[in-house]
Structures are given as C-alpha cells and as structure tokens.
Amino acid sequence: MAPKTDIATRAMVVILKFSGKTGPEIAELAGISERQVNRIYAKAKERGFDPASRPLILKDDFLIDAPRSGRPSKQTDDIKEAIATTICRDGNGREKTTANIAAELTSEGFPISSTTIYRVLKKSGLRKTKPTRKPSSAHSTPAATSR
C-alpha cells in the first residue's frame, strides 16, 4: 500500500495540475506516482474544486481523507463504567486479573473479553497492583535483625 499523502502535497498537486503542469512533471516534483496525481486532482474536482472559478478557491474539504467506516468499538461508556466500578468496588479490585473481571462482568450482563478489559485499563492508565508485604524474619539477614 502506498504511503498516505499529506494535505500540503495534495494541495500542491491540485495547484500544479491547474497551472498546466503535466502528470509526470507533478509526479516527479511531489515524489508520488502519476496515477496518484490524477486521483488527487479528480477527487478534488469531485468534492467541489472548480478550476474555472475566479478567484480560485482551494479548501481543505476538497483534499482531506474521506471518513472511514469500521467496526464499532466494544468499549462503550457503560462498559468502561462497569469495569471501573468492578475494580473500585472492594479492596482487592486492583489485584484481580482481567480474566476475573471479565467473568464478573459477563455474569452481570456485560459480555466482554479479558483482552478488551486489558485495553480499557491500559488506555485509562490503571495498572495492576501487588500488595506490599514486609519481609518475614525467616528471610531477613542477621545484620538487618540487629538494628
């Protein structure tokens, strides 16, 4: 897949094409293929660029990427809130594994995977904590016990 061209490059292509430069000349100047030059110019015209208008108007709307469709995220606000509630509900909430949290939420009516929970927690900045424990006297050194 070809690298995406930025809006400045697209604007340069449209203006150079309008001013009479040929496709191969523009392609060489911009560092893109001639086919891409033609696509950019055709898409700008399709979106409202009129080379015959005076003064010449070149808007960002003629050059920006079209919105992409995609699968909707499972990370709705309700699920994010349910995850936060599950973690903050008791003192051991932040010690639970993502699999345990997923099992709890699934039993509460939120079917969600542990991977999705991990992503939500990572994005929100929460981390698993491990309780701190004082070392037992069996593992301490003689120098540490004499103090």
Gyration radius from CA atoms, angstroms: 29 Å
Overall body shape: elongated
Looking at how many chains there are and whether they match, the oligomeric state comes to single chain
| Relative strand content | under 5%
Outline the biggest β-sheet: none
| Low-confidence spans | none
Tally of contiguous helical segments: 7
Domain count: the total is 2
Average of pLDDT: 84
- Gap between N and C termini, in Å? 67 Å
The class by helix and strand makeup works out as: mainly alpha
Please provide the ordered H/E string of secondary-structure elements: HHHHHHH
The portion of residues assigned to helices is: 40-55%
**Number of DSSP-assigned strands:** 0
Pfam family, one: HTH_Tnp_Tc3_2
Protein name: Transposase Tc1-like domain-containing protein
Organism: Ophiocordyceps australis
GO molecular function: DNA binding
